[in-house]
Sequence to fold (214 residues):
Amino acid sequence: LHKAEQVEGLVQWVEAAGESQSALEGEKDGGTLILLWGDMNNRVAPPAWVVACAKEDCTGERCFNSSVATKLAELLTSEQGRRELLHGDELQQRRGEAHSALAGCFDFVGAYDLSRTQPTYKRTPKKVLSRSADKDKQAAELLEMFFGLKGKKAKQGGTFEQLYLKDGMMQLGWPDTLGWRAPCGSISLSHYSTLDDVCLSDHAPTIACVSYTW
Fold:
């Protein structure tokens, strides 16, 4: 389904859950209905300097070069740099109909400072971080992790998969967070982290714990 259609279905589910909640409250062992949802499919919009460097390659799609990727990897070595990239996050900026609807219907891990963690997508499978304190080594590892995946386009004479812009967005972001909605009571985030030393796919494993108060 199209993302907007998925969101519309979720909003309808939440509204129905709110109606069901009224019935639960009258029961002796009544509980509450909580919806937890991860992988928002939100990515990061490229900064203007990345867009200015993007060109169409032999595959007919727009991409940026390795020099731009190196600069992006350097930004990822610090919270300040990651915060700069998060300014273009689709969900936090409510870019487009689907993300506006999501942001209006759910509470998100986004309230947590995601700049403390590395992006969860799009990673090169089996590439992990060594937790080195050396900035140059960090940048080299991040370059390989986030901009070193050889996909189908590389076989066609193109470049690394993550260097392509898809629908105007970079193949980079924090989509593996968590969204929640409780018709009654309150939920708060008590812990959120990513596992940078485990990577079996192009998404990083994440751990999120929420506290619920009736």
In short: The CA atoms of residues 153 and 159 lie 7 Å apart.
